[in-house]
Amino acid sequence: MDPSANTTLTPHEFSPSAQAVSEGLAIRLESCEISAWQDLYAAAPVAFAQAHGLGIERIETVVMTRCATIPFTHFNCVMNLGLTAPATQQQLAATLAQYRHNLIKSFTFYHVPFSKPRELPDWFRSSGFELTGGWDRIYRDHRALADCALPPGDDLEVETVTATTAREWASFIDTTYGLPTSPWLLALVGRPGWHHYILRQRRQCVAARSMYMHHDGMVWFGIDAPVPGVMAPSFDWDLRLCQAMVRDALALGAQCFVADIEAPSPQMETTAYRHFASLGFRGAYFRGHYRLG
To answer: Per residue in 44-55, pLDDT tens?
Structure first.
């Protein structure tokens, strides 16, 4: 992949059957995110986890998150059913039973083009789940970051989160989403593998993103606020954050990056795709979200 070769990504249909990577790479990309969430859940303070019914569990190879009090997609989802091995009706029934046991009424199954068996979406629908949307998964390798012309913004500055600014960062995220997660977020500041960034405009925090770097050099981008293209006025703020994150991660020895476009476009024609392409990212596949309730 030559980051400077193209500044647009190849259009694809808005369909969970479309993909542009191998099954092996898809498993690596999904596993990278799973590793990040496993570490994120492990970092949760005990009192916070107990108060919110927070936990991450496995049924054989299937990883599932849960949170009784916060109806956030990431916090109540089955992340990899049918990915590394074909799913079975018994696994599906077991995951449904586990959420019922924990009194979780609404949760999501992630589904990628390589999920098996092919009939898995039919199983979801027969269990009351519907495809409610999803995200375009994107990735880049470890090649050097090409020159990228940033949109005008002399009053904007990217800053890494430190112990001094941790509470401001956590409060900004909670205020943006109306969440009570500050104790959990604060536990991630200074935690090995985690790097957090804020974007300031005239000294005020206006955007944030984090990345988790696994020991194998895989890097996951997440904890973005506000959601680019959904809550943020434009994608320009996110470009500045992601450029700084790619630059810093490469300096730390990053081998592969995985991120998402949470406002996907069937023709991949929005500014988000052009911005990520300018940073060397390319499209991988559409990850569908099958949701109950």
So the answer is: 999 999 999 999
